[in-house]
Design goal:
Layout: H1 12-16, E1 22-23, H2 29-42, E2 46-49, H3 53-58, H4 61-64, E3 67-70, E4 75-78, E5 86-94, H5 100-112, E6 115-120, H6 128-132, H7 135-139, E7 143-148, H8 153-159, E8 165-170, H9 182-189, E9 197-198, H10 204-220
Parallel strand pairs: 1-2, 5-6, 5-7, 7-8, 8-9
Antiparallel strand pairs: 2-4, 3-4
Length: about 230
């Protein structure tokens, strides 16, 4: 595949308020280069997701050098970055340190859109005191993203404790019976904590965009969560 295969949707934000991101997994270096060159010509900023260190290193220096790269989340910011216009609205709560890459992907996707999220990690329910030490801080945010693998119990516990929007992100973290995140996904889908929205396995980017849609709706309706 070559760069000529690329038709990037630069007008997506005008239609739905959400930018198209560059999902780099499965794209060739040539295709990524084409997108970056098109963005540079337009003066557009881009979010790159699932960008491996190997593909980053293979990019031309003039392009790769302009990427703000996070090796934990495999995300990159290319070109101009929006200033922060929203803080204190979204909190991302990760059960374990191993869930941090997905949580960080969500945080970076939000930041690219101008939303500074609060990130809280390693508060899984195996040590419930860790969560309870932070619960009042978590409750102050109108949108909570819960990131958890294994049995994903964190999401259900939060569902019974927080009053705002709850978005669950199952991760592929865990031993054999977790089946690459399917156990966590099913646990969130069958949670007795009503009203939780559930994203796909390891999809921190999707959770961030769900939060952005909610924030945009709140803004359009002039809803003040405080």
């Amino acid at each position: 595949m070559s760069g000529s295969d690329v038709v990037f949707d630069f007008a997506r934000a005008e239609r739905i308020g959400l930018d198209e991101a560059v999902f780099c997994a499965g794209k060739s270096v040539a295709q990524i280069v084409t997108i970056l060159e098109q963005a540079r010509a337009r003066g557009a900023g881009l979010l790159l997701t699932r960008l491996s260190a190997e593909k980053l290193a293979a990019l031309p220096a003039l392009l790769g050098g302009d990427i703000d790269y996070c090796d934990l989340s495999l995300t990159g910011f290319f070109g101009p970055l929006r200033p922060v216009t929203s803080t204190g609205q979204v909190v991302i709560v990760a059960a374990g340190t191993s869930d941090a890459p997905v949580a960080r992907e969500a945080a970076r996707a939000l930041r690219h859109a101008g939303v500074e999220a609060t990130l809280i990690t390693d508060v899984g329910v195996a040590g419930l005191w860790r969560l309870m030490d932070r619960i009042e801080e978590i409750r102050r945010h109108p949108i909570v993203i819960a990131v958890a693998g294994m049995d994903a119990a964190l999401a259900s516990v939060l569902g019974g404790l927080v009053p705002g929007v709850l978005i669950g992100v199952p991760t592929s973290v865990g031993y054999g019976a977790t089946e690459g995140g399917r156990t966590a996904l099913n646990a969130m889908l069958t949670s007795c904590a009503q009203g939780m929205t559930v994203c796909n396995i390891d999809n921190g980017f999707g959770a961030a965009n769900a939060a952005l849609r909610i924030l945009h709706t709140m803004s359009a309706l002039k809803i003040n969560p405080a």
